[in-house]
Amino acid sequence: MLVIGDLDQWQASGRLRGVPAGCAYLGIDQLSPFTLRRHAPDLILSPLLSGGFDAVDVAEKLNAARFQGMYRVVADDLPNAEIIRNDIRATAPDLDFDLLVLPRAIP
Protein backbone atom coordinates (compact mmCIF):
# COMPACT_ATOMS: atom_id res chain seq x y z
CA MET A 1 0.00 0.00 0.00
CA LEU A 2 1.17 3.48 -0.86
CA VAL A 3 -0.17 6.56 0.91
CA ILE A 4 0.16 9.96 -0.72
CA GLY A 5 0.45 12.95 1.56
CA ASP A 6 2.21 14.08 4.66
CA LEU A 7 2.52 11.38 7.34
CA ASP A 8 2.21 13.97 10.12
CA GLN A 9 -1.04 15.29 8.62
CA TRP A 10 -2.47 11.77 8.35
CA GLN A 11 -1.67 11.16 12.02
CA ALA A 12 -2.95 14.58 13.13
CA SER A 13 -6.25 13.97 11.32
CA GLY A 14 -6.88 10.95 13.55
CA ARG A 15 -7.13 8.64 10.53
CA LEU A 16 -3.88 6.91 11.33
CA ARG A 17 -2.99 5.39 14.67
CA GLY A 18 0.31 3.87 13.60
CA VAL A 19 2.30 3.13 10.48
CA PRO A 20 1.24 -0.26 9.12
CA ALA A 21 4.02 -2.63 8.10
CA GLY A 22 4.61 -2.60 4.37
CA CYS A 23 3.03 0.82 3.93
CA ALA A 24 5.04 3.55 2.20
CA TYR A 25 4.31 7.28 2.46
CA LEU A 26 5.18 9.64 -0.38
CA GLY A 27 4.59 13.28 -1.10
CA ILE A 28 2.81 14.17 -4.33
CA ASP A 29 6.12 15.39 -5.76
CA GLN A 30 7.60 11.90 -5.27
CA LEU A 31 4.81 10.15 -7.19
CA SER A 32 6.22 9.03 -10.53
CA PRO A 33 6.26 5.98 -12.80
CA PHE A 34 9.61 5.07 -11.21
CA THR A 35 8.27 5.11 -7.63
CA LEU A 36 5.19 3.17 -8.74
CA ARG A 37 7.42 0.46 -10.22
CA ARG A 38 9.67 0.47 -7.15
CA HIS A 39 6.84 0.11 -4.63
CA ALA A 40 4.46 -1.85 -6.90
CA PRO A 41 1.40 -1.03 -4.75
CA ASP A 42 -1.94 -2.74 -5.23
CA LEU A 43 -3.61 0.12 -3.38
CA ILE A 44 -2.92 3.85 -3.19
CA LEU A 45 -4.65 6.11 -0.66
CA SER A 46 -4.73 9.87 -0.54
CA PRO A 47 -6.80 12.56 1.13
CA LEU A 48 -9.32 14.44 -0.98
CA LEU A 49 -7.49 17.70 -0.26
CA SER A 50 -4.05 18.28 1.19
CA GLY A 51 -1.51 21.06 1.28
CA GLY A 52 -0.43 21.63 -2.30
CA PHE A 53 -2.50 18.95 -4.06
CA ASP A 54 -5.87 17.29 -4.36
CA ALA A 55 -7.21 13.94 -5.52
CA VAL A 56 -7.50 15.10 -9.13
CA ASP A 57 -3.73 15.80 -9.17
CA VAL A 58 -3.03 12.28 -7.90
CA ALA A 59 -5.49 10.71 -10.36
CA GLU A 60 -3.87 12.55 -13.28
CA LYS A 61 -0.41 11.27 -12.29
CA LEU A 62 -1.66 7.72 -11.81
CA ASN A 63 -3.53 7.78 -15.09
CA ALA A 64 -0.46 9.10 -16.95
CA ALA A 65 1.65 6.32 -15.39
CA ARG A 66 -1.02 3.74 -16.35
CA PHE A 67 -1.33 2.57 -12.76
CA GLN A 68 -3.27 -0.71 -12.69
CA GLY A 69 -4.06 -0.97 -8.97
CA MET A 70 -6.78 0.63 -6.87
CA TYR A 71 -6.81 4.33 -6.00
CA ARG A 72 -8.95 5.30 -3.03
CA VAL A 73 -9.51 8.79 -1.67
CA VAL A 74 -10.35 9.32 1.98
CA ALA A 75 -12.70 12.22 2.69
CA ASP A 76 -14.79 13.51 5.54
CA ASP A 77 -18.55 13.43 5.21
CA LEU A 78 -19.58 15.16 1.98
CA PRO A 79 -22.94 16.51 0.86
CA ASN A 80 -22.66 14.88 -2.59
CA ALA A 81 -19.80 12.42 -3.00
CA GLU A 82 -21.03 11.39 -6.47
CA ILE A 83 -19.95 14.73 -7.92
CA ILE A 84 -16.37 14.06 -6.82
CA ARG A 85 -16.49 10.45 -7.99
CA ASN A 86 -17.71 11.56 -11.41
CA ASP A 87 -15.07 14.33 -11.71
CA ILE A 88 -12.19 12.01 -10.89
CA ARG A 89 -13.50 9.20 -13.07
CA ALA A 90 -13.80 11.69 -15.95
CA THR A 91 -10.21 12.83 -15.33
CA ALA A 92 -8.85 9.28 -15.19
CA PRO A 93 -11.38 6.94 -16.83
CA ASP A 94 -9.12 3.86 -16.81
CA LEU A 95 -8.27 4.18 -13.11
CA ASP A 96 -9.86 1.85 -10.54
CA PHE A 97 -11.07 4.70 -8.33
CA ASP A 98 -13.47 5.16 -5.47
CA LEU A 99 -14.10 7.58 -2.66
CA LEU A 100 -14.11 6.41 0.97
CA VAL A 101 -16.35 8.82 2.82
CA LEU A 102 -15.91 8.85 6.58
CA PRO A 103 -18.98 9.59 8.69
CA ARG A 104 -19.13 12.68 10.83
CA ALA A 105 -17.90 12.17 14.35
CA ILE A 106 -20.65 11.84 16.92
CA PRO A 107 -20.18 14.33 19.78
Task: Summarize the biggest pleated sheet.
Answer: 5 strands, parallel
> What is the residue-mean pLDDT, rounded to a whole number?
85
Give the overall shape, derived from the CA principal axes: globular
Helix content percent band: 25-40%
What's the total helix number?
4
End-to-end CA span: 32 Å
Description:
It is built from four helices and seven strands. It is α/β, with parallel strands linked by helices and 107 residues long. Strands 2-1-3-6-7 form a five-stranded parallel beta sheet, with helices on one face. It has a two-stranded antiparallel sheet with strand order 4-5. Helix 1 links the parallel strand 1 (2-4) and strand 2. It starts with a strand and ends in a 5-residue tail after the last strand. The relative contact order is 0.18. The model has no long low-confidence stretch (mean pLDDT 85).
Salient structural properties:
107 residues; alpha/beta; single chain; two-stranded antiparallel sheet; five-stranded parallel β-sheet; globular
Secondary structure elements and their pairing?
Elements: E1 2-4, H1 7-12, E2 24-26, H2 33-39, E3 43-47, E4 49-50, E5 53-54, H3 55-64, E6 70-76, H4 81-91, E7 96-102
Quick rundown:
With 107 residues, the chain is α/β, with parallel strands linked by helices.
